[in-house]
């Protein structure tokens, strides 16, 4: 393209601690001559011989033929420029490798091909994996730089005359910068790619230095700092502590990245054909060939176009978990674990699938795949594969989530191609297992895939069947769907009209898949062809692709809120848009517990997150709609809340599953007459399959997308620029893994202050520091030392404790019991929260006034008043079991109970449904397991 060439500004090379040496703008020959002279002045004979270099670059490798070319070019240039065969840079610090110039550095680029980086990853044996770093990419391309891609950051930009542009020139021609003469600006997006590709030296750190690195990286992650900011924090700490510069510990960016590399895992870059989407695999050459298209493609162009994904081997991550993070006591023994009721569903292990197909030699994995838009101004989406280990306590399942792969593009991945390396590794984990060491013993652990969790958009891609808006779009049953006119278009309704459709089976689905491929038809009963997941040994393509309750309920909540509050339906009997302000008034007056977020106005419902829709369905909707939504619609809605309350319990009886199924089917079947058949959407239809999912895999919270969606939000936060976003995501995940591995190695050497600081950095929800701990309670805040008033003394005597009236005792107003924070009703600081209502062991409800620790006693008592249920007053015909209607006022007698009698906290509030009628309600938080509280 002809036109005026972009003016190049001068650039810098950092060779030593003496400061930057400016290279004047001139011809390329002059620049090369100047740099050669400068290099000769600063160097002595190299100590690293060509044989040493062979340890890093294998010339005989078939995977990386370009490496041999680069190394041969290096040796030719070395022989031409110096009489000595070996040179070394003396002025470089110990943590920086000397820069190795290759033939690519002196190439005239007359062919117009882009430069290739001369550095390669030692662990991954890949070309240019680390193009961008997650938290440093803040640079912006010049406005007239047409070679810069908006979505991905390539290694180099080349002007029309073949010269490297300003941002990339320092990366291409300079070694890693030193700590003393670093540039002031934190423009790390251009230099990070070269740093990631450089072969870093081995770190020789003491335990104390490793602890400092760990704390520094944890601070970097918590506050989303760049590497330069992290270095400055250490500099500031050294200055404030008046440490000598020669003895002070100064971890450079290079050291921090090397530490992450050592404690993390390798990643590999896999390509797909840009034309047909066929999986190519790992490419170690400048170009690759697609046999299906009979075409050759340039590797760098394919990367910049987004036709690739990064894969992080699960074997390495699982081995790290087994060796460093998990102990034998941490992993749940599913056969001998304690249960509330031996016959109930209490976890995934109680489901029919686990009991039938998972033997004692296996641990099980769930994996999740879904798209997440990385920004509001771009259509680019990330499609990560997240993996969780089931045989862990709930809070650890979230903590030790793994990412196996990530795809980033404006288009959806072809799952049969994208999942190939993942499926191959799952098969290997099932047959060969993971070899690891524990306590000096060599052990093997096998893994089996249990559940694939995804939403209704991704699930058809994984099953290779029609989407929900196509004919026979349900992958669980043979309901064909009914195409109906709706608005200006059409909608597919899953109305049953009292008809029951048979469930699909794995064998039938595979038969239809083979037939569809052999006959080349679009689909047979909704099945288009074979799915790659069926290659995993024993994987049931029907049952193990679970109907995720999270997305299902969120969509149902959105649908009915739209019907009730949107003015489009103002003429319908179920629409209450004219009374939306009344519903909002009730809603905004509610003071929930600290475990449940305060609800926003319904006018902001388009911005509600998933957990807010859960709370609306289960807690807020029925009392807020009482006497506003007509009774027949409210009674119908309460059936959904009733069924979900049964299924979400910690322990679910088989009879309760039967009742829940009855209420869910009744809820779905009545929609035809109440709202119209066009509103029996696919998400509504999935409610009829929830109980089958519970029978196969336990309660919905065992295999919900909720914990994965939280990680999706973290992944979204990792992306700070559209340039190289996929590498920003993987680097963020690698940092998270490195912190866990490094912590497990050095934690036993850390003192209490270091451990406390690390916990603050790694944990988002930190419990308050207790003043003292008695029995199972941790008392918070400074106590009020006072003599007890007569009512308190009488309450203690009723509990069998006689106290001296003149001796002062400790009175507290906050405490932690069973990992829940309780406040007394007299605690005034929490004005928008109510943590003062407790459920006791005998199912009675107690309102807390204060917590008493008698002088010279090791016992703690809760003082308060009982409040009784009001069984005559009902909100609706089908009152959910987790909801209790209480009397408006507690009893007048003050009581004292042992703090150990408290079981859990209740969400309690009052709602004025009319001028003369008020409901005081208490809710058991059945969603605590779902939200891992």
TrEMBL record:
Highest taxon of source: Eukaryota
PANTHER family per UniProt: F5/8 TYPE C DOMAIN-CONTAINING PROTEIN-RELATED, F5_8 TYPE C DOMAIN-CONTAINING PROTEIN
Span of the signal peptide: none
Ranges of compositional bias, category Acidic residues: 51-62
Name assigned to this protein: Superoxide-generating NADPH oxidase heavy chain subunit B
Segments for region (Disordered): 1-121, 164-196
Organism: Frankliniella fusca
Skewed-composition ranges (Basic and acidic residues): 11-20, 74-84, 96-112
Compositional bias annotation for Basic residues: 1-10, 25-35
């Amino acid at each position: 393209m002809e036109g005026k060439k972009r003016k190049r500004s001068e650039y810098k090379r950092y060779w030593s601690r003496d400061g930057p040496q400016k290279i004047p703008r001139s011809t390329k020959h002059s620049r090369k001559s100047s740099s050669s002279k400068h290099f000769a002045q600063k160097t002595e004979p190299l100590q690293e011989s060509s044989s040493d270099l062979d340890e890093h670059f294998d010339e005989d490798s078939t995977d990386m033929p370009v490496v041999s070319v680069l190394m041969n070019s290096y040796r030719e240039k070395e022989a031409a420029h110096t009489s000595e065969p070996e040179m070394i840079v003396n002025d470089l610090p110990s943590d920086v490798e000397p820069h190795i110039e290759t033939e690519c550095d002196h190439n005239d680029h007359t062919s117009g091909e882009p430069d290739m980086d001369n550095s390669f990853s030692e662990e991954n044996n890949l070309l240019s994996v680390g193009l961008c770093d997650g938290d440093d990419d803040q640079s912006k391309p010049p406005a007239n730089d047409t070679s810069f891609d908006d979505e991905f950051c390539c290694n180099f930009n080349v002007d029309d005359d073949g010269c490297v542009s300003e941002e990339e020139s320092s990366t291409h021609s300079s070694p890693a910068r030193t700590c003393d003469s670093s540039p002031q600006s934190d423009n790390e997006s251009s230099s990070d790619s070269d740093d990631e590709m450089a072969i870093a030296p081995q770190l020789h750190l003491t335990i104390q230095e490793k602890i400092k690195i760990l704390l520094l990286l944890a601070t970097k992650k918590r506050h989303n700092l760049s590497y330069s900011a992290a270095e400055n924090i250490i500099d500031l700490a050294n200055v404030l502590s008046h440490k000598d510069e020669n003895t002070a510990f100064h971890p450079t960016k290079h050291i921090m990245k090397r530490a992450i590399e050592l404690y993390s895992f390798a990643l590999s870059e896999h390509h797909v054909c840009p034309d047909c989407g066929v999986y190519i695999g790992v490419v170690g050459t400048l170009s690759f060939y697609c046999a299906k298209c009979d075409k050759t493609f340039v590797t760098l162009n394919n990367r910049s176009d987004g036709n690739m994904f990064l894969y992080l081997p699960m074997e390495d991550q699982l081995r790290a978990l087994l060796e460093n993070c998990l102990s034998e006591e941490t992993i749940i023994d599913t056969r001998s674990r304690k249960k509330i009721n031996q016959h109930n569903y209490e976890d995934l292990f109680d489901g029919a699938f686990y009991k039938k197909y998972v033997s004692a030699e296996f641990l099980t994995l769930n994996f999740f795949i879904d798209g997440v838009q990385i920004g509001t101004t771009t259509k680019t989406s990330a499609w990560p594969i997240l993996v969780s280990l089931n045989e862990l306590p709930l809070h650890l399942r979230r903590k030790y989530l793994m990412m196996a792969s990530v795809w980033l593009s404006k288009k959806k991945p072809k799952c049969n191609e994208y999942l190939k390396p993942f499926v191959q590794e799952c098969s290997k984990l099932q047959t060969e297992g993971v070899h690891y060491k524990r306590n000096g013993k060599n052990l093997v652990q096998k893994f089996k895939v249990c559940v694939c969790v995804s939403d209704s958009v991704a699930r058809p891609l994984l099953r290779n069947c029609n989407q929900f808006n196509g004919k026979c779009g349900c992958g669980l049953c043979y309901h064909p769907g009914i195409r109906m006119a709706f608005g200006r278009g059409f909608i597919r309704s899953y109305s049953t009209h009292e008809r029951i459709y048979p469930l699909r089976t794995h064998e039938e689905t595979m038969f239809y898949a083979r037939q569809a491929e052999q006959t080349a038809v679009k689909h047979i009963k909704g099945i288009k062809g074979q799915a790659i997941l069926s290659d995993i040994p024993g994987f049931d393509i029907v049952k193990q692709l679970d109907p995720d309750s999270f997305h299902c309920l969120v969509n149902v909540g959105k649908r009915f809120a739209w019907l009730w509050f949107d003015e489009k339906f103002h003429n319908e009997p179920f629409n209450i848009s004219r009374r939306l302000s009344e519903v909002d008034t009730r809603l905004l007056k509610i003071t929930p517990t600290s475990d449940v977020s305060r609800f926003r106005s319904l006018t902001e419902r388009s911005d509600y997150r998933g957990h807010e829709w859960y709370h609306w369905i289960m807690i807020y909707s029925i009392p807020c709609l009482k006497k506003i939504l007509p009774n027949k619609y409210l009674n119908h809605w309460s059936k959904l809340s009733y069924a979900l309350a049964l299924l979400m319990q910690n322990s679910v009886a088989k009879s309760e599953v039967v009742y829940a199924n009855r209420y869910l089917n009744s809820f779905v079947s009545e929609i035809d007459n109440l709202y119209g058949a066009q509103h029996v959407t696919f998400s509504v239809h999935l409610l009829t399959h929830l109980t089958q999912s519970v029978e196969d895999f336990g309660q919905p919270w065992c295999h919900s997308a909720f914990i994965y969606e939280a990680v999706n939000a973290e992944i979204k936060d990792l992306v700070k620029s559209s340039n190289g976003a996929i590498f920003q995501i993987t680097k963020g995940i690698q940092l998270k893994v490195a912190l866990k591995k490094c912590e497990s190695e050095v934690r036993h050497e850390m003192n209490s202050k270091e451990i406390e600081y690390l916990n603050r950095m790694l944990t988002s929800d930190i419990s308050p520091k207790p003043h003292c701990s008695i029995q199972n309670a941790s008392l918070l805040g400074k106590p009020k030392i006072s003599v007890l008033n007569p009512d308190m003394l009488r309450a203690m005597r009723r509990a069998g404790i006689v106290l001296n009236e003149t001796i002062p005792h400790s009175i507290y107003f906050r405490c932690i019991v069973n990992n829940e924070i309780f406040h007394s009703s007299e605690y005034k600081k929490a004005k928008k929260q109510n943590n003062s209502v407790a459920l006791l062991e005998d199912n009675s409800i107690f309102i807390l006034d204060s917590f008493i620790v008698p002088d010279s006693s090791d016992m703690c008592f809760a003082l308060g008043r009982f409040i009784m249920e009001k069984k005559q007053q009902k909100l609706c015909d089908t009152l959910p079991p987790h909801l209790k209607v209480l009397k408006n006022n507690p009893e007048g007698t003050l009581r004292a109970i042992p703090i150990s009698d408290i079981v859990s906290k209740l969400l309690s509030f009052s709602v004025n449904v009319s001028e003369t009628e008020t409901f005081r309600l208490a809710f058991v938080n059945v969603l605590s397991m779902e939200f891992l509280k």
